[in-house]
Amino acid sequence: MSLWRTTPDLQALNNLRKNTINEALDVRFDAFDDESITASIVVDSRTHQPYGLLHGGASVVLAETLGSTASYLCIDSSKFYCVGLEVNANHLRGVRSGRVTAVARPVHLGRTTHVWDIRLSGDDGKPSCISRLTMAIVPLGNMPPPV
Predict the structure, then answer these.
(1) Could you say which of 23, 35, 64, 86 is catalytic?
(2) Under CATH, to which class is 10-142 assigned?
(3) Residue 64 annotated as catalytic
(4) Domain spans of the chain?
């Protein structure tokens, strides 16, 4: 049985990148199955820190993008929205080029919070970062007004 309330449409998710940080950093939704969703980020001058390695913040952008999208796909968006509460990242090894791929799997899908385990690895398949993202699931009636 799939965890998705809304079946991921990779093309539609990738179309949402326009004029966002995800377009600027070339974040792409790549795949999904019944238990996970996968996305990747480019490793080049757009995402490097001064020493030529993938910036830790870019890894966090990928993790939060993937986990928050995963939460959205698990909720009834006619009644709820989801926002990040906490994200952490343990950077395990540097990556200089190619793409880093992240796989998000749920740790907890509760009524008011979701927790995601997100594992990032380089093109060589070696782990580069482990992230955990906690999302708040909020009733639409509690949405703040637009700024």
Answers:
(1) 64
(2) alpha beta
(3) yes
(4) 10-142
